[in-house]
Every structure is written in structure tokens, then in C-alpha cells.
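Incident log, structure service

09:12 report received: a user says their structure output differs between two submissions of the same chain.
09:20 pulled the input from the user's history:
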Amino acid sequence: MDPVPARPAGPQPGRYLARHTTLPGAVEAATASLDPAQCDRRGPDGRLIEGTAGVDAGTTSTLAIVPCVLSDADWLTSDQHLRLMAVASVVTGIARLLADDPGTAILHGQVTRMCATLHHATRPDTPGLAPEFEQAL
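09:34 re-ran on a clean worker, output below:
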């Protein structure tokens, strides 16, 4: 994924998204750390322990804030807004799917379909999916 375009120079360049051009790093960190073994489970006392699928809280926080701050990024096009929203949502969704039920998410193709969506959202100027990813959907 290309870096998030920086806010043009101006009197108030300190908005959140302009400062947090770490979104590509957060996406890479989340996808690299995915671990189906870190799923929801019961502790020794019978309480539910919510899994993280291997994604740390800081990375999850960076991805979760994107939809909340896109309206401040008025220098981005609508297409860029949608792509950023899709990337943050899909990566967060993959982690949640793996934490909730890794077997179903992997064996029934949910993760594959979400990766195809991620692939499409990060392709800069291609209107359709590559043929190998259309089959995954």
C-alpha cells in the first residue's frame, strides 16, 4: 500500500491523519502478525478470554481510528477515502475473524475473500479485480 498522501502545506497541518501516515505500517504489522492460534478461548476459571489473532492493541487502535478521521482529510479524493476505509476495515475484520473462529474463517474461504478485497482496494488504478482474485469472491 502506498503511503497516505500528506496534507498539503497550510496553516493547520496537524490533523490526525496527516500526522499518522503510519497506516501502511499498521497494515503491514497487522497482516504480518496474524496468528490463528491466538483466538478466543476459555480461561482456567471458565471466563472468556478475547483473542487478538496476534495483532497488538496499538496496531488495532491505529486501524480503528481511520473511519473516525477521514472527514478531516479533505485533501483526499472520495476514492482515496473509500480505499483507506476498506483497507482499515478489511485488515481489522480478518483479525477479528481469526480470533472468533479461525477454522471456519480459513476453511470456508472467508479470509481468502477478504484478502481479495484488500488486494483490490490497494491497487492504485485498476477498476476491476485481477482474474485470479475474482475466483476467490
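09:41 both user submissions now match this output. Likely a transient worker issue. Closing.
09:42 reviewer note: The chain has seven helices and two strands. The radius of gyration is 17 Å.
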